[in-house]
Every structure is written in structure tokens, then in C-alpha cells.
Amino acid sequence: MTEVEANEGPTPVLDLGAFVGELTVEDDAASDDVSLEGLEQELQDYKTDDVVAIILSKGTKLRDYTKDVENNLRQLELDSIEDYIKESDNLVSLHDQIHDCDTILAQMEKLLSGFQAEIGSISSDIKVLQEKSMDMGLKLKNRKAAESKLAKFVEDIIIPPRMIDIIVDGEVNEEYMRTLEILSKKLKFVETDTMVKTSKALNDVQPELEKLRQKAVSKVFDFIVQKLNALRKPKTNVQILQQSVLLKYKYVILFLKEHGKEVYLEVRAAYIDTMNKVLSTKIRAYIQALEKLQLDIATSSDLIGIDTRSTSLFLRGKEPLKNRSAVFALGERINILKEIDESALIPHIAEASSKKYPYEVLFRSVHKLLMDTAASDLFYDIFAGPFAVVDEHLNTILPNCFDAIGLMLMIRIIYQHQLIMSRRRIPCLDSYLDKVNISLWPRFKMVFDMHLNSLRNANVRTLWEDDVHPHYVMRRYAEFTASLIQLNVDYGDGQLELNLERLRMAVDDLLVKLAKLFRKPKLQTVFLINNYDMTIAVLKEELLVEHFSDLIKFVKTRASEDPSSSSERPITVTEVEPIVKDFASRWKAAIELMHNDVITSFSNFLCGMEILRAALTQLLLYYTRLSDCMKRIAGGSALNKDLVSISSIMYEIRKYSRTF
Question: Where primarily located (predicted)?
Fold first, then answer.
């Protein structure tokens, strides 16, 4: 406990009873405004108040304290009155200022009230003006729309004098076509627009438009007829005239179609008739020019089983058949299928080179010409004549065609042409190509059966020679069969395979009959072995030629030459390089294709694999000769990196030999 706390002593406790007890009713009887009701409750509520607690702690009586307070209040009132008196002048001045402010504010209130009234009036006027503005804007928009439609109507229906002059007196040119387009729009406008039909202006304009339409149709008709007559003139370049004139002025035809239907049909018929005759003449002349380039391959006497010694050379006008194996061998004629989409022959250029072609080359050119022309909607109508010319030509050629290989090539050409037209999405030649294909197959079958019957009906004693070497009939058969097998590789024609089987049985039967004419069994066996071996050799060679023709051709014609000799055309690296690189890039793939061909072409698996083995062995010999030739060429060592090693080829051969 601190000293202060000790001096202060214990905190006095409020004794409400002492104070309340001293208050008597009589003491406050004079006060009507004072009520003591609830005093005790208030004292209880304020006993914790700090001010009350301080007063009680001083021991002052409540009445005394009340008197002190009243005295203080009176003094404060007197002081306040004194201060008010001192400031009376200022207060008067303040009162005057307040009064002046009230006057000014009243004036401002009146002025603002006037402004408010005027603003309300202006707002009403603005609203009215806004409504009028919107109404005027709508009217303006409607008037502009009406003006635009009216202007367009006037523009579409009016006939400018310049247009009349051009239609009536102008020449048919680009300006004339532009004017025709304007006239066409006006004609369509008066015919289709419903507003025009109710317009009084139509009565004035329509007669003039009709006169212009009739004049334009007449002038365009005369122009087209003039150009069509130019097509009929001799030595006219039809293609140039079509592209530079008819195609350029194609709109005049469209104008006729839309506004001169009867005249359009007349022009269309005239064009079809003109082009029909012109193209028929051109194609007939083209075919006649091609016929001069035709190389005769076979006649009715050129059959596998015909004895060449019994046919007169004077009657045939050709060399003996056994020296003309090209009749039965496909050879390079297969290239026509690789060049199926090349340009057609140009007769005068081909004739200048004095070169002759098998008929299938001419056949491809004629149909290539038709394919490149087949793009018009009028194709069937225009080409009725040219089709007739080609049909007439084929009907003349096919009955005299005894070239079975050529016929099969033509069948394959038609098939390839059908694929080309399908890729081009041009179906207009479908029915024609089907028709040609249907006409080729029966002819091929007839010629094939002639070969078959020549074997079946062959005079064995006439054909027999006292010689065990391969018979020429067997060589013909081998070459003929190899050619047809090659032409069937990518097509898988089962009917052709059946026919080849019939041919094999016939030649096998004939060969056995020929062998029996030898007196000694040994000679009979040797004769059969030699002929069968020759057949395998031919098939082997044909199998190789299909995939390695450039290599074989070079080895046979050039590899035996001495590169260092002073010949006219010595062997160079440039000549050999394409052959070496081509072989290096695809020899494995080519052998795989040969294997697949053998598997699909020969029903006797062992026989086919024997032919494949022989072909691969021969390929190795050809490539060995090419490699030896490379060593003798100056600078040939530069190609050593592209040469395939002999061991690699032998490994590949052994790999296929394991499948035996």
C-alpha cells in the first residue's frame, strides 16, 4: 500500500438513505414542476456514475450542491447577456445581412423558377423537334430508297441511243458482245420484273426492245453462219478457228440460246452438221495417211503349225516364216502400253522418217485423237460421222488382221484408254470403247483358234525334218506363248490362260508325233529335250527382256566391241552410265517381280521356277559381260561405285533357288 493510498483511507461508500432521508416533501412543496417519483430508482442507476461518486465523496449535501449549480447558471446567464449586449451591433448587422441575403435568394428563386419554366418549354420543343427530325429522316430514307429503285428502274428500262447504234449498225466484236450483255439484261428485266409489267413505261419501251432483239439475233446468226462456212473451206485449221473465233465469241451463242431459241437450234444444227462433216473428212484423211505407215505383220498363212516350205514366196511376197519370228514374238511392241498416253502420230513427220509401224501403233493414235477431243457436250452429235469413219476403217482392217499379238495389244490399249478417260472423268467415250473392245475379242479368238487348229491339223510328215535340233514350229509356239503371257501379267485374264493351256496341249501332242518319226528312241528323247529346252530358253529370255531390256540390248549389240578400236561410235562412259545406274537402283525389285510373274503365269510350279532359275542365271551372264566391258572403257572405273557385285547377284539367285 502506497503512502497516498494510506492517507486517503478507505473509499467512502454512498449512503443513499442519508441523502434521501433529508429530502422532505415540504421542502419542495413550492415546486410544482418537480416530481420525486422514481427518484430512488434513478439514484440506484447513477450510484456508479463518476461525478456523483465525487460529490458524495466530498461529503457535500445534495441541496447545497444544487444551490451552487443554480448560482453558477445565473452567473453564466448574466455573462451571456453582457456578451450579447456587447455584440448587439454586430448581431444587428448580421441580421441585416441575412435579410439582404434572403431578398437576393428570393430574387434568384424567382429567376430560377423562370429558367425552369423556360427549360421545360425548351425540352418540350426539343422533343417536338426530335420527333420531326426522326419523321424527316424516315421520309428522306424512303425517298432515297424510292429514288434508288426509280434510278435503277430507269437505267434498266431505258434504251441509250449508243446501244441502238451498235446493235443496228455495229460489227460483231468485243464491244458488240458487251452491248449484247446489256441488251440481254434489259430483256430479262422487262420479262421477269413484276413492277415493270404494271408500268406505263413498258408500253413505250417494249416494242423498241423487241426490234433490237430481232436485229441482234439476225446479225449474230449471219455472223455464226459466216464462221461455220469458213470451217468448210479446204485447208482450214479447224482448231485455230475454234479457239480464236468461236470460243472467243461464245457469248453470242448464249445470247441466241436465251433470246432466240429457234435460231439457236438452227445454228446448233448447222454447227453439228459442219463439224460432223469436217471432222469426218479430217479423220478419214488422218487414217488414210496412217495406213501408209502400216507395217504388215501377219497374214492368214502366218500360223504356228503351217509348213513354211509349202507356201510360195511369190504368193506371200514375204520372206520364209521361220526367218520371221517377229510374227510371234512380242519384242519391243510391248512399249506401246508404256507409251499409252503419248501424243498421237503426226503422219507427215513419221512418213519423212520412212518408218513403218505395227497396226496397234496406228490404232492407239486414232483413239488417242478421239480421247483428246472428247470433252464437248455435243460430242455424240458432232462425232456421229467420225465414229462412222473409224468404224468403217476397223471393219475393213479387222477381217484382214491375222496378227494375234497385235489384236491383244489393241485390247490392252482400249483397256488403258478406258482407265485414262475414267481418271479424266469424261464418260462420253465409254460406250464407244466398249463397242471396240467387244469387236476385238472375237477377232482375237478366231485368229488364236486358227493357230490352235494349225497345230491340231498339221501334217506331221510334211513338218518332220531329220534333225534333232529344236523345230521352228516349237520356236514359234514358245515366242507366241511368251508374248501372250507377258501381255496377261497385269490383267490376269482367265479365259486367255485357258486358251494358252489348249495351245500347249496341242503343241505337246504335235511334238510327240514328230518325235515318233525318229527311228531310234535316243533320237526321239534328244529331239524332245532340245525342243523343251528351247522353249524354256525363249520364255527365260522374254522374262528378262521385260525387266532388263536396255541391259540385254547393250550386251548383245555393243559389249563385244573393242572400246579402244577406231569405230565410228566407240563405247563411252556416258552411254553405259544410265544402264549401270538403272540396274543398281532396281535389280532386286525386278527379280522379285519376275518371281511373282512366274508364280502367277505357270500352273506348274516346278516348271515356272526352273524358268526363273534359268532366267536369273542368264541375267548373271549378261551382267558379267557388262562388268567386263566396263573395265575396257576409258574412264569406266568412275562407275565402279555403282556396279553390283557378282556375289550379291549369286546370293539372290541362291535365295530363290531354295524355293524349289
Answer: Golgi
